[in-house]
């Protein structure tokens, strides 16, 4: 039987959800207008004021907020509460530039942890479970978010944080952990290590895993499920919005329910900003309607996905999003097919190779060509020519399955891929269109 | 019984083979045998050298992907049918040959390098039939 953490919210009627969204959006727009000069200026420039926002149907009138705005407003420019009301910050890794720092009131943390508790409950978690949180604890939201959610559900929580694989496995076995929360790549690694130790699924007490914070494929899900004998659930979130738990998978495993009582989701055309109808693929935009300290209005996530309100077998009524297919800022269109570098990275990682690759797109006789250079690694190399050729062919097949396109895979010498300022150049588009 | 062969990954493009031989030359590595297998976009260079440890160290420092593969270096009797006899023994044992190449030692003696599916089994069978297998040390001293 399906369990809910907050059944009256999670299975509310669409009308009820819309009523919450209408009321909370109107209040939130007034809150940022009154307290955040940065938002007020943006709205004034767009010619909108809180008077124009009477319900969630007026959301499209508001301007977008992007990561660039978050960087420009760093650190306090988007904080909507006096600092004495804030009790916590969390922060992104900052790999693509300046860090983003998000602020929380106690109430914000409380609501965020509710979202994580919904995810854990949807994965079958109850107060009888032992939940091991192997996400990093600290500035990263993964550890603190799932830790809080696990407490709310009433699970016995093991806060191992990330790393020290032997200790992770020791706790899982000695304390009979039934739920594991970590990144999918770490879950795969833990699974492989347990397999090498000779542990079969029936010797591993885990029954469910909640894995997020990075892209992973269905193939990877099946592998993890098989190695550890568990059911693996996806979870989605952004530090900017709160952290993990913005959306989560249910028993249907066909998309992640967005917590619509806290976030309004839209899908837009990344080029024009136009709102697209349900079921169309586009860029995901979120408005946080309950967050007090760091509210975001029409935040462009750059994640490309699709939304659906089709009835879900789990009984939840909140809209579902597909796993993000990639990022709008690095999407390539090759022979009419959308290709994201992250998909290629996923294929390489799933095949057990490090993601040292470069995509070269060109146009020969009016047809796009897709070449993918992959740096040879000691793990991939053997003296057997047939075996190396087979591995090359396996990559081509896996890429075709993921992209729906045939790519040429070129095995190249280590460190031969162009690096600029220490970072590899991932895409070279030679097409002259 | 087997000899250590070093296999090196090379991109199939002008200069990549030169890059390998240059590293070997600069470090005074003496080649005993050298064979190349290739496809249109990559190749595997197979080397028998005088000093395996030193070679793998310099290759690693130079960033070449490589590994060590055990192969059999068979001293082929310099009589008609010598090679045929060796292959006959391997056939009788059900051992498959993945690849092979030849090189000359001192005193006009020929060696045949064999990469086989079961090195130990092949070595035992050849030795039992009186075929001489060279050791790494013997090749280093050539």
Descriptive report:
The complex is a heterodimer of chains A (433) and B (142). With 433 residues, chain A is α/β, with parallel strands linked by helices. Helices cover 31% and strands 24% of the residues of chain A. Chain A is built from 11 helices and 23 strands. In chain A, the strands form 6 sheets. A 9-stranded mixed sheet of chain A has the order 4-3-5-6-7-8-9-14-13. In chain A, β5, α8 and β6 form a beta-alpha-beta unit. In chain A, α5 packs across α6 and α10 (341-350) crosses α11. Chain A is globular. Chain B has 142 residues and is an alpha+beta fold. Chain B is built from 5 helices and 7 strands. In chain B, strands 1, 2, 3, 4, 5, 6 and 7 form a 7-stranded antiparallel sheet that branches. Helices cover 33% and strands 37% of the residues of chain B. Chain B is globular and about 40 Å long. The A-B interface holds A 376-378, 381-385, 388-389, 410-416 and B 5, 7, 9-11, 16, 37, 39, 41-42, 44, 46, 63-67, 69, 98-99, 115.
Number of strands of chain B: 7
Count helical runs of chain A: 11
Major β-sheet annotation of chain A: 9 strands, mixed
Helix content of chain A: 25-40%
Structural class of chain B: alpha+beta
Brief overview, please?
The complex is a heterodimer of chains A (433) and B (142). With 433 residues, chain A is of the alpha/beta class.
Q: What is the topological layout?
A:
The complex is a heterodimer of chains A (433) and B (142).
Chain A lengths: L6 H4 L3 H22 L1 H9 L21 H6 L13 E6 L9 E5 H17 L7 E4 L8 H12 L2 E3 L6 H10 L4 E4 L1 H13 L11 E5 L5 H11 L2 E8 L4 E7 L6 E3 L4 E6 L13 E7 L10 E7 L1 E2 L11 E2 L4 E2 L4 E3 L2 E3 L1 H10 L6 E8 L2 E9 L9 H19 L4 E5 L6 E2 L2 E2 L2 E3 L4
Parallel strand pairs in A: 3-4, 3-5, 5-6, 6-7, 18-23, 19-20
Antiparallel strand pairs in A: 1-2, 7-8, 8-9, 9-14, 10-11, 11-12, 12-15, 13-14, 16-17, 18-19, 21-22
Helix pairs in contact in A: 2-3, 5-6, 8-9, 10-11
Chain B lengths: L2 E9 L4 H11 L4 E8 L3 E8 L2 H10 L4 E11 L5 H11 L4 E8 L5 E7 L2 H10 L4 E2 L1 H5 L2
Antiparallel strand pairs in B: 1-3, 1-4, 2-3, 4-6, 4-7, 5-6
């Amino acid at each position: 039987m399906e369990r809910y953490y907050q059944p009256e919210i999670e299975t509310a009627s669409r009308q009820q959800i819309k009523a919450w969204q209408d009321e909370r959006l109107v209040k939130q727009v007034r809150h940022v207008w009154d307290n955040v000069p940065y938002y007020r200026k943006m709205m004034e420039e767009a010619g909108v004021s809180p008077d124009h926002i009477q319900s969630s149907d007026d959301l499209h009138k508001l301007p977008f907020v992007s990561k660039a705005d978050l960087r420009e407003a760093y650190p306090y420019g988007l904080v909507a509460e006096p600092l004495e009301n804030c009790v916590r910050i969390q922060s992104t890794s900052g790999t693509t530039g300046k860090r983003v720092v998000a602020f929380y009131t106690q109430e914000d943390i409380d609501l965020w942890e509710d979202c994580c508790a919904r995810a854990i409950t949807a994965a079958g978690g109850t107060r009888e479970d032992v939940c091991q949180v192997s996400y990093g604890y600290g500035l990263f939201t993964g550890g603190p978010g799932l830790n809080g959610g696990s407490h709310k559900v009433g699970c016995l929580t093991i806060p191992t944080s990330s790393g020290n694989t032997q200790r992770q496995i020791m706790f899982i076995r000695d304390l009979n952990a039934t739920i594991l929360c970590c990144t999918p790549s770490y879950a795969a690694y833990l699974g492989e290590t347990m397999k090498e130790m000779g542990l079969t699924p029936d010797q591993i007490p885990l029954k469910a895993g909640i894995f997020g914070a990075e892209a992973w494929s269905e193939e990877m899900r099946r592998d993890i499920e098989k190695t550890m004998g568990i059911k693996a659930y996806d979870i989605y979130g952004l530090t900017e919005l709160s952290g993990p738990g913005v959306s989560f998978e249910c028993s249907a495993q066909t998309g992640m329910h967005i917590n619509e009582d806290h976030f309004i989701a839209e899908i837009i055309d990344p080029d024009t900003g136009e709102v697209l109808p349900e079921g169309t693929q586009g860029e995901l935009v979120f408005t946080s309607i309950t967050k007090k300290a760091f509210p975001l209005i029409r935040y462009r996530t750059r994640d490309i996905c699709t939304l659906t309100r089709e009835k879900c077998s789990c009984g939840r009524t909140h809209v579902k999003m597909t796993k993000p297919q990639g990022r709008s800022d690095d999407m390539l269109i090759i022979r009419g097919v959308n290709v994201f570098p992250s998909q290629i990275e996923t294929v390489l990682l799933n095949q057990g190779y490090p993601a040292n690759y470069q995509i070269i797109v060109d146009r020969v006789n009016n047809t796009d060509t897709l070449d993918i250079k992959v740096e040879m690694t000691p793990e991939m190399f053997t003296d057997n020519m047939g075996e190396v050729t087979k591995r090359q062919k396996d990559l081509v097949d896996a890429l075709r399955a993921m992209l729906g396109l045939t790519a040429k895979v070129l095995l190249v010498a280590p460190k031969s891929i162009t690096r600029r300022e220490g970072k590899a150049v991932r895409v070279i588009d030679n097409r002259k269109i | 019984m087997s000899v250590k062969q070093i296999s090196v990954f090379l991109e199939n493009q002008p200069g990549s083979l030169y890059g390998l031989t240059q590293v070997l030359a600069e470090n005074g590595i003496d080649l005993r045998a050298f064979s190349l297998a290739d496809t249109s976009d990559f190749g595997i260079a197979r080397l028998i050298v005088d000093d395996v440890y030193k070679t793998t160290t310099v290759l690693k420092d130079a960033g070449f992907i490589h590994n060590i593969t055990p192969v059999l270096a068979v001293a082929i009797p310099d009589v008609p049918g010598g090679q045929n006899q060796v292959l006959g023994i391997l056939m009788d044992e059900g051992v498959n040959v993945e690849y092979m190449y030849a090189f000359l030692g001192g005193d006009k003696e020929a060696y045949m390098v064999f990469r086989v599916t079961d090195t130990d089994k092949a070595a035992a069978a050849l030795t039992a039939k009186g075929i001489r297998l060279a050791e790494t040390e013997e090749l280093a001293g050539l």
